Amino acid sequence: MIEFRSVTKQYPDGTRAVEDFSLMIPSRKTTVFVGSSGCGKTTILRMINRMVDPTSGSIQIDGDDIGGLEPVGLRRSIGYVMQNSGLLPHRKVVDNIATVPLLKGVKKAEARIRALELMDTVGLDRAFADRYPSQLSGGQQQRVGVARGLAVDPNILLMDEPFGAVDPLVRSDLQEELIRLQRDLDKTVVFVTHDIDEAFYLGDQVVILKKGGHIAQVGSPSEILANPADDFVADFVGANRGKRALHIEETASGSIVVDADGRPAGTLTGRVPVADRPLS
């Protein structure tokens, strides 16, 4: 479990990126921070592994205040995946994945075996092991980035807009892959995005942020859609417009679901009892 307690981050120029932020991030769930540019979501994420230190307040992981932990050691124990993968261009795929284990003293042969296993885990053919990042597609590079983030089997995986730079089809595949990985590996995932659809698709807990890291609403996707906290949230998630404002329309061929603009959005396949419906 990760807990933020009244955390503020103020930069030397006086800018307050995050102000009095408090939140509990549950273990073995995916928590997604979503908001427009400048709302502090990436700063909040990077404070978890001390890439950024708070000006005041505290952050605890499983009851331990991370302010007293050695930063480099903390970072090497937490998986981190960023946009554009951040791979080392001069190192082969397998060596990129093995980077942190090698830094932690794992023998090269053992680290390579683990890296190859992780390529299987993230759905990347082992034939790419000895290629360089420039020889891979954007989606393949992101899979390598995810494998590298998992290389030391961390309990926590931080993901900073990891799918933002790939095309929509590849992005969809990577989202599906992350859901599968979370189901199989049971990690505490903290994910940053500016895309509310991605947040609702991936998140068990979604945190909608305003400027300064102020929480507009936190809850499951279904809770937020069913009961937006205020007009800001309703507008941000598009609760009353577009593809969120759905209704049933009768046609000659049967009932279909259409959005607020009259575009077909799907069909009805039967009712699900309320008690059996997923929370997200």
Summarize the structure.
The protein has 280 residues and is an alpha/beta fold. It has ten helices and 13 strands.
List keywords for this structure.
31% helix; disordered C terminus; 10 helices; 13 strands; Rossmann fold; 26% strand; 280 residues; alpha/beta; single chain; 4-stranded antiparallel beta sheet; 2 domains
Strands of the biggest beta sheet: in what spatial order? 6-7-8-3-9-10
Strand-residue fraction?
Answer: 25-35%
Secondary structure category: alpha/beta
Oligomer kind? single chain
Helicity level, as a percent range? 25-40%
- Biggest beta-sheet profile: 6 strands, mixed
Q: What is the topology?
A:
Layout: E1 2-10, E2 16-25, E3 30-34, H1 41-48, E4 56-61, E5 64-65, H2 71-76, E6 79-82, H3 93-97, H4 99-103, H5 108-121, H6 138-149, E7 156-160, H7 168-185, E8 188-193, H8 196-202, E9 205-210, E10 214-219, H9 221-226, H10 231-237, E11 247-251, E12 254-258, E13 264-267
Helix pairs in contact: 5-6
Structure description:
- There is one protein chain.
- This protein has 280 residues and is of the alpha/beta class.
- The protein folds into two domains: 2-237, P-loop containing nucleotide triphosphate hydrolases (Rossmann fold), CATH 3.40.50.300; 241-280, no CATH class.
- The protein has helices at residues 41-48, 71-76, 93-97, 99-103, 108-121, 138-149, 168-185, 196-202, 221-226, 231-237, and strands at residues 2-10, 16-25, 30-34, 56-61, 64-65, 79-82, 156-160, 188-193, 205-210, 214-219, 247-251, 254-258, 264-267.
- β12 and β13 form a beta hairpin.
- α5 (108-121) packs across α6.
- The chain starts with a strand and ends in a 13-residue tail after the last strand.
